[in-house]
Amino acid sequence: MPEWIEIKDVSKKIDGFQLGPVSLSIEPGTITALVGNNGSGKSTMLKMIMNLANPDSGEIRVLGKPVDGKDESWKRHVTFQPQNAVGWNAYTGEDLKRLIAPLYPKWDEAVFERMISLFDIPLNKRFGKLSPGVQQKLSLSLALPRSTDILILDEPTASLDIPSKNLFMDCLVEWMEQEDRAVILTTHETEDIRKLADYLFLMQGGKPLGHFEKDILAAGYRRFWLHEMPAGPLPGELSRTENQLVSDNPDATERYLSEHGSPVIDTKALELEEIISLLLK
Ligand SMILES: Nc1ncnc2c1ncn2[C@@H]1O[C@H](COP(=O)(O)OP(=O)(O)OP(=O)(O)O)[C@@H](O)[C@H]1O
């Protein structure tokens, strides 16, 4: 399948911070979560995709078009929701919808109305007077109905209460099912990643740590409970306590234990949160 977003060897220096080189491809039909420590460069990556920040080197293409080229037609196919909406404070939700909807030929009024009702958003209040959580709900309700091929969301659930996070995740899953679409989002919420992401792109201090298929990553780490801990290190061993061993190569660990007659009391896959913490530590 052709890539919808192609980031090739992109680097950028901001004061003392070095981002990249980063390469990443996004295919249609996928949700990719950019995950990393604070200040690891996730938002900057999104801004570079939108041509709101310029890389020092490398190339970014969206739907085959270089994002810094003269042809900006790709922008019509992309919705970008930054962490904070700029210039919206004086407008009510109703105003914003009137301004935004006509710009998008595939605007889906039914999705907008459903989200406004689900989130119980007052459309007659100025954006600047809404709480950060309601602002975020309104922004999302103005993003999904645009029905663009690509949706780029910077920490979409950061201010949402727990029921609203779940409602939003349901809306996004439904949105994905309607057509071939692609989502790239940044998040610190493991629940978002667990429920939404097909792929994780991990970043630390500006450097990419890897692009993982979530299910493969989740299956790649196990904890073993043992009667007796063999002398180590064992194949795949990442850490051990008196009777527990964590492995990033469970098959090799299990084989070794079986071949060396070490009975396993129990074994369990690590939670995604623990895996991400191990990778980002
Ligand atoms: N406008 C700016 N002015 C100066 N430095 C900036 C600016 N934007 C980003 N940076 C630098 O780039 C680095 C990466 O910032 P970025 O916001 O991309 O990280 P992030 O991974 O999105 O962080 P967080 O998880 O905290 O949102 C920061 O550490 C900061 O040094």
CATH topology of the largest domain: Rossmann fold
How many alpha or pi helices?
A: 9
Give the biggest sheet. Answer: 6 strands, mixed
- Give the second-level CATH assignment, the architecture of the largest domain: 3-Layer(aba) Sandwich
- Sheet-strand content, in percent, reads 25-35%
Provide the CATH superfamily of the largest domain.
Answer: P-loop containing nucleotide triphosphate hydrolases
Domain module count: 2
Which structural class fits the helix and strand makeup? alpha/beta
CATH level-1 class of the largest domain: Alpha Beta
Placed side by side, the strands forming the largest sheet appear as 6-7-8-3-9-10
Pfam families: ABC_tran (PF00005)
Domain ABC transporter: 5-230
Keywords: ATP-binding, Nucleotide-binding, Transport
GO molecular function, one term: ATP binding
Describe this structure in words.
The protein has 281 residues and is an alpha/beta fold. It folds into two domains: 5-217, P-loop containing nucleotide triphosphate hydrolases (Rossmann fold, 3-Layer(aba) Sandwich); 220-280, no CATH class. It has nine helices and 14 strands. The strands form three sheets. A six-stranded mixed sheet has the order 6-7-8-3-9-10, sandwiched between helices. The protein has a four-stranded antiparallel sheet with strand order 2-1-4-5, with no helix packed on it. A hairpin with a 2-residue loop joins strand 4 (57-62) and strand 5. Helix 3 packs antiparallel against helix 4 (132-143). The radius of gyration is 22 Å and the shape is globular. The relative contact order is 0.14. Residues 14-15, 17, 36, 38-44 line the site of adenosine-5'-triphosphate. Adenosine-5'-triphosphate binds next to helix 1.
